[in-house]
């Protein structure tokens, strides 16, 4: 496969009157009859950038050079997809499959609907192991709330009923409340500040409906450790867990949050710290599935041959969709702010990234419709222009007549001698 350096040399060899500049080169544009160099170009590690100052499009220049569009961009290396390590099945009270949480390696979690799509759109959220949880409550047994699905599965192996919620620590939704009415609950946080803070949110809500809410911090586990770490210690089983609840668990109160918040330093952490310089993070994939099936498929297909970033393609798609729909419906942001379903989309990209060609591709149908409407109304527009010209001529005539009348009236109000003198001067 050709490297971008090779393609840059090929690109330069096909141009005439190439001259080095501080930022790259300038040359005659091959797409029009160029007399003075109007094409500027440079390249980076990822792409070859160029711009014709006369306005020639990316496609026309590439075609004139006899090159391919993909030669101007580094070819994406096909990375190995993340492998699925575990799949955690969520069921409703009847045992029906409502969603999964998929755990990947390297560590990552994504929710997935039963139809295989990685989205929670139109999914009813329920606690993990809901049928087992309801059965245990029916038999008068207590429920442990832990931070992850793995902890719940490991707890089940020793006969302990445990639940958690999609999304990790503190991801509470009020719709979960109905499942904990009159329940005996033990909140078991992970051994870190984030775990305690998230579990405190859960406990503060469940206490509204549960019969009792206990708070249990597990001993003898490392920092950031959890129930799974405790169960991995030889000899720890259900009996030891029940004994630990009896001897160490305390009734949850809001005062508990203040106690562990003040001792956060014991665990080597600052609560809610904000770094002065943000660390670089691996960018998350653009949530193209959130666009809906039709728009998602269009964006992915365009990305296949256009190679622009998914976010930039989605911006053009959303802008075009909002333009097409803004006359059809309004959106209420709150009770006072109601307006057209319009978007203002700003795309920031370097010269040569084909922003214009992207917008033209998605808005082509709208532009064609505008041209068709203009052609259909051509005669009416001509008549309107003629009528306006006639009206303007009459208007100018009236204004001239008004000025002449005002002038005559002004003269008639002057003394006769002064009027004769002024007329004489005019003559």
Features:
13 helices, 4 domains, 427 residues, 4-stranded antiparallel β-sheet, 5-stranded mixed β-sheet, Dna Topoisomerase Vi A Subunit, Chain: A, domain 2, alpha+beta
Structural notes for this entry:
The protein is 41% helix and 14% strand. It is of the alpha+beta class and 427 residues long. The protein folds into 4 domains: 4-72, no CATH class; 125-267, Dna Topoisomerase Vi A Subunit, Chain: A, domain 2, CATH 3.40.1360; 288-362, no CATH class; 379-426. It is elongated, with a radius of gyration of 36 Å. It starts with a helix and ends with a helix. 21% of the residues are buried.
Widest β-sheet, arrangement of strands: 9-8-10-11-12
CATH topology grouping of the largest domain: Dna Topoisomerase Vi A Subunit, Chain: A, domain 2
Q: Give the count of structural domains.
A: 4
Structure classification: alpha+beta
Mean pLDDT equals: 84
Instruction: Give the H and E element order.
Output: HEEEEHEEEHEHEEHEHHEHHHEEHHH
Radius of gyration: 36 Å
CATH C-level category of the largest domain: Alpha Beta
What profile does the largest beta sheet have?
Answer: 5 strands, mixed
Question: Topology, pairings included?
Answer:
Elements: H1 4-13, E1 19-20, E2 25-27, E3 39-43, E4 48-52, H2 58-65, E5 83-91, E6 97-105, E7 108-112, H3 130-138, E8 143-145, H4 149-157, E9 162-163, E10 184-187, H5 193-206, E11 212-215, H6 227-231, H7 238-248, E12 250-251, H8 254-262, H9 293-306, H10 310-325, E13 330-332, E14 338-340, H11 355-376, H12 378-412, H13 416-426
Parallel strand pairs: 8-9, 8-10, 10-11
Antiparallel strand pairs: 1-2, 2-3, 3-4, 5-6, 6-7, 11-12, 13-14
């Amino acid at each position: 496969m050709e490297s971008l350096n090779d393609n840059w040399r090929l690109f330069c060899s096909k141009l005439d009157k190439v001259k080095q500049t501080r930022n790259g080169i300038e040359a005659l544009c091959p797409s029009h009859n160029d007399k003075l160099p109007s094409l500027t170009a440079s390249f980076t590690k990822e792409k070859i950038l160029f711009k014709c100052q006369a306005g020639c499009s990316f496609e026309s220049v590439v075609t004139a050079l006899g090159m391919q569009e993909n030669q101007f961009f580094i070819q994406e290396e096909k990375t190995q997809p993340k492998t699925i390590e575990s799949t955690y099945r969520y069921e409703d009270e009847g045992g029906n499959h409502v969603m999964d949480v998929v755990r990947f390696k390297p560590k990552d979690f994504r929710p997935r609907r039963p139809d295989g799509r990685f989205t929670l759109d139109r999914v009813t959220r329920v606690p993990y192991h809901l049928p087992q949880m309801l059965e245990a409550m029916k038999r008068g047994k207590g429920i442990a709330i832990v931070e992850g699905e793995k902890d719940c599965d490991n707890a089940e192996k020793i006969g302990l009923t445990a639940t958690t919620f999609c999304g990790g620590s503190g991801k509470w939704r009020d719709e979960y409340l109905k499942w904990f009415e009159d329940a005996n609950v033990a909140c078991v946080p992970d051994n870190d500040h984030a775990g305690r803070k998230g579990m405190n949110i859960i406990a503060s809500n469940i206490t509204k409906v549960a019969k009792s809410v206990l708070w249990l911090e597990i001993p003898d586990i490392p920092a950031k450790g959890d129930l799974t770490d405790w169960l991995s210690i030889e000899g720890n089983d259900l009996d030891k867990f029940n004994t630990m609840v009896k001897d160490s668990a305390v009734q949850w109160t809001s005062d508990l949050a203040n106690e562990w918040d003040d001792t956060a330093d014991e665990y080597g952490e600052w609560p809610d710290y904000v770094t002065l310089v943000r660390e670089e993070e691996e960018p998350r994939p653009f949530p193209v599935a959130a666009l809906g099936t039709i728009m998602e498929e269009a964006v992915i297909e365009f990305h296949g041959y256009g190679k622009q970033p998914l976010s930039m393609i989605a911006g053009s798609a959303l802008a075009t969709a909002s333009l097409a729909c803004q006359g059809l419906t309004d959106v209420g942001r709150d009770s006072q702010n109601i307006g057209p379903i319009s978007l203002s989309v700003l795309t920031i990209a370097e010269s040569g990234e084909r922003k214009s060609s992207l917008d033209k591709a998605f808005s082509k149908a709208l532009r064609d419709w505008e041209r068709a409407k203009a052609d259909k109304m051509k005669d009416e527009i001509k008549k309107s222009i003629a009528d306006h010209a006639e009206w303007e001529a009459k208007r100018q005539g009236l204004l001239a007549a008004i000025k002449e009348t005002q002038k005559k009236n002004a003269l008639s109000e002057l003394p006769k001698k002064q009027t004769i003198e002024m007329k004489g001067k005019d003559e």
